[in-house]
Specification:
The chain has about 600 residues and is α+β, with helices and mostly antiparallel strands. Strand 6 (about 65-70) and strand 7 (about 75-80) form a beta hairpin.
C-alpha cells in the first residue's frame, strides 16, 4: 500500500509483536512511534543534526535499546528507553570518550547484551559475557591481526558464521564450532589477489592549523623504505562520512604503483561526535582543507613524503577538496585528479535534487546559506571555479554525464575556465555514468588514464597495456576541452565576432565510427540557418545562434528513416570548428569541421 505516513521501519519485541515504528517527518526529523493497534504515538524524536534509532527490545520486553545523541550529547551512546513512561537510562558511551557508539551484539537465547563495539583508529570491543569473550580470544589466536565479526548462528548458538578481514586481507568466512573449538573456512573473497603483495595500513594522528587533532590512515608501498616517497592524498567523499581501517582496494592500487597514500578524516567527518562534525560548518576550502594540507606537511616533516611529488585524488567532496587543494594551495601539489567534483558551491546548492529537499537546511548549516548575502559571498570565496587563475597543477577531471548530485556543468565550467586561460587540462566524461563510475569497463578506463597521469607527474609506475575493450572505451571517454560547451542561452545582444556562413566539411566520431557530414550555413547577424547532410540522412537547422566564437543550434534530421534532433555546440577558430553533436539515445559525438574557401 502507499506509505502515506512516511514510515521507514518497524521494531518487533522479543515475542514477535509489533511495538514500534520509525518515521521521517516532513522537516527531516526522525521520529520513533509507539504502535497501539492501528494508532501511532510519537514517543521520541531527533532533528536532522542528530541521530536516533531503535536497536532491539531489552530482555524484560518492556524497555527498548536506542542509539542516540539527542540534545547536548556529543557522542552517540546506547540508552534504554521505556515507551510507556518515556524514561531514559544511559547504558554506555565510549569509555575513552573518542568516538560514537558502534554496535551491540545480543544473545538470541538469553536476550542478554554480549558485546559493544566502537570504531576508533581500529575497532574496540567491550565484552559483557565472559564465555563469549573467551571464545573470541580463541578465534584471535587462530586468526591473528584480523578484525573478526560474529554473524548468524544456529538456534543453540553453538555454530557461528565468522567473518575476518584486515588491511591486507579483503575477507574470509568461516564456520565456528564453539564446543569443538573448530574453525572451517567457507570461502575467501578475491582469491586470486596475492596477499603477499599488499601493503599495510597504519592509523596516524596529527595536528591541524588550529591544533585540532586529525585522525587519518597511511598506507605505504610494500618493500620500499618509507623515505621521500611520492604521496597521493585521497580525501573521502561525503563529506559527512569517514574512512576506517581495513582492506581498501583503491589505497592498495596506489601503493602498488609506488605511492604512499594518506586518507584523512578531516573535521566534518562522521563517527567522532557532533562537535567534530560541527567544526566543519562553513569550512569547505578553509579549516577542512587545512586538515588535509597539514596532513601533507606532517608526512613531509617526518621525511616520509617527497614535497616535490605530492598528488591529490578524490571523488564527490573528495573531488571538491582536490580542486580546492590546487586553487588554495597551488604550490603544494604536483598532480590532481578530481572525480565528480563540485567546482561552484552556489550552483551545487542550487541543484539539490527534490528527494533531498527535506534536508536542505542541513546543507545550509554545514556549507552556508546562498540565500543570504553573507552566505553567498562565503560560498563564492570557497568555490574553486572563482580561483582558477591560481592553478598551476596538472589536472585531470572525471565526470559522469548523468550525475544527479554533482551536475555535469560542475565539471564543464571549470574545464572551460581553464581552457580560456589556455591552461592544459584532461577531461574524461562517461555518458552512461552518474555520481561515480559503476560499469567495469569505465572504471578500468578511468584507472588506466589516472595511473598514467599520476606516473607522468609524480614518478610512480603504471601499466601500459590494456585490453582492446578498455582502450576503445578510453578513447570514447576522452573529451577534447575545446569542444566543451555550457548549456546556457546565448545573449542575443552580443554581436557575433566570427563569420560562420558557408559550406563546412565535417568529420564526426561516434563510438569509434567516422562519419563525413556536410554543413551549409547561412548567417544573418547572430542568427544561423542551414542544412546538414550525410550518407545516413540529413535535416535543417533551427534556432541557430552565434555569440563570439561560439556556435549553437538544433538540427531536425532524419537518420536511417528515424526523425530526431541533433544539438550542435561548437567553437570556431579561423576556418576550423570543433565541438559536439548530441541527441536522445545517441553516443557522444565529437566533430571537427573545416570551412571551404
Amino acid at each position: 500500500r502507499q506509505n502515506k505516513d512516511r514510515l521507514t521501519g518497524w521494531v518487533f519485541d522479543n515475542q514477535d509483536k509489533l511495538r514500534l515504528a520509525s518515521r521521517s517527518a516532513a522537516n527531516g526529523d526522525t521520529e520513533i512511534l509507539r504502535v497501539d493497534g492501528d494508532k501511532f504515538t510519537k514517543i521520541y524524536s531527533c532533528n536532522v543534526f542528530e541521530g536516533c534509532g531503535a536497536v532491539r527490545f531489552h530482555k524484560d520486553n518492556r524497555r527498548v535499546y536506542l542509539e542516540t545523541n539527542k540534545g547536548n550529547t556529543d557522542l552517540t551512546r546506547l540508552v534504554l528507553f521505556e515507551p510507556e513512561t518515556l524514561k531514559e537510562e544511559v547504558v554506555e558511551s565510549d569509555p575513552l570518550n573518542r568516538v560514537d557508539f558502534g554496535n551491540a551484539l545480543f544473545s538470541e537465547l538469553t536476550d542478554e547484551l554480549i558485546l559493544t563495539t566502537y570504531n576508533d583508529d581500529k575497532m574496540r570491543r567491550y565484552w559483557k559475557d565472559k564465555v563469549f569473550e573467551a571464545d573470541y580470544k580463541w578465534l584471535q589466536s587462530k586468526l591473528p591481526n584480523m578484525e573478526i565479526g560474529l554473524g548468524s548462528s544456529t538456534k543453540d548458538e553453538n555454530l557461528w558464521i565468522i567473518s575476518a578481514f584486515s588491511d591486507t586481507e579483503p575477507g574470509e568466512t568461516y564456520l565456528f564450532d564453539r564446543k569443538a573449538k573448530k574453525l572451517t573456512k567457507q570461502y575467501t573473497v578475491r582469491e586470486k589477489l596475492p596477499r603477499s603483495a599488499l601493503s599495510p595500513m597504519t592509523p596516524i594522528r596529527y595536528k591541524s592549523s588550529d591544533g585540532l587533532e586529525i585522525p587519518a590512515y597511511l598506507t605505504l608501498p610494500k618493500g620500499v623504505a618509507a623515505k621521500n616517497l611520492p604521496l597521493v592524498v585521497v580525501p573521502h567523499g561525503g563529506p559527512w562520512a569517514r574512512d576506517s581501517w581495513g582492506y581498501n582496494s583503491f589505497a592498495q592500487f596506489l601503493a602498488n604503483r609506488g605511492y604512499a597514500v594518506l586518507e584523512p578524516n578531516f573535521r566534518g567527518s562522521t563517527g567522532y561526535g557532533k562537535k567534530f562534525i560541527d567544526a566543519g560548518n562553513n569550512q569547505w576550502g578553509d579549516k577542512m582543507q587545512d586538515d588535509i594540507t597539514w596532513g601533507v606537511k606532517h608526512l613531509v616533516a617526518e621525511g616520509i613524503a617527497d614535497p616535490k611529488r605530492i598528488g591529490i585524488m578524490g571523488g564527490s567532496y573528495g573531488g571538491y577538496a582536490t580542486l580546492a587543494g590546487v586553487t588554495y594551495t597551488p604550490d603544494l601539489y604536483a598532480a590532481a585528479v578530481a572525480i565528480v567534483a563540485p567546482s561552484n558551491l552556489n550552483t551545487l546548492l542550487g541543484s539539490i535534487p527534490p528527494y533531498w529537499e527535506q534536508i536542505r537546511q542541513v546543507f545550509y548549516k554545514r556549507m552556508g546559506d546562498p540565500n543570504t548575502a553573507e552566505g553567498k559571498a562565503q560560498l563564492d570565496r570557497q568555490s574553486p571555479l572563482n580561483h582558477v587563475d591560481k592553478i598551476k597543477t596538472p589536472l585531470l577531471i572525471v565526470q559522469g554525464a548523468n550525475d544527479p548530485r554533482v551536475k555535469k556543468a560542475e565539471a564543464d565550467q571549470i574545464v572551460i575556465a581553464l581552457r580560456e586561460r589556455k591552461y592544459p587540462i584532461e577531461y574524461i566524461l562517461a555518458d552512461d555514468e552518474g555520481h561515480g563510475f559503476q560499469r567495469p569497463v569505465n572504471n578500468m578506463a578511468m584507472f588506466a588514464v589516472g595511473e598514467k597521469f599520476l606516473a607522468k607527474h609524480l614518478g610512480g609506475r603504471f601499466q601500459e597495456s590494456m585490453t582492446p575493450e578498455v582502450e576503445k572505451r578510453l578513447k570514447e571517454l576522452t573529451i577534447d576541452p575545446k569542444t566543451v560547451m555550457m548549456a546556457k542561452k546565448i545573449d542575443m545582444k552580443a554581436a557575433p565576432t566570427v563569420n560562420v556562413g558557408g559550406k563546412w566539411n565535417m568529420t564526426a566520431n561516434a563510438g569509434g565510427q567516422t562519419i563525413p557530414i556536410t554543413l551549409e550555413l547561412k548567417q544573418d547577424s547572430a542568427n544561423l540557418s542551414g542544412t546538414l547532410s550525410s550518407a545516413m540522412g540529413g535535416g535543417t537547422l533551427t534556432d541557430g545562434k552565434v555569440s563570439g566564437n561560439t556556435v549553437m543550434g538544433t538540427f531536425k534530421v532524419e537518420v536511417q528513416g528515424q526523425a530526431t534532433e541533433l544539438k550542435l555546440e561548437g567553437i570556431m577558430e579561423g576556418d576550423k570548428m570543433t565541438g559536439t553533436l548530441s541527441g536522445a539515445g545517441l553516443p557522444p559525438i565529437t566533430f571537427t569541421a573545416t570551412k571551404e574557401k
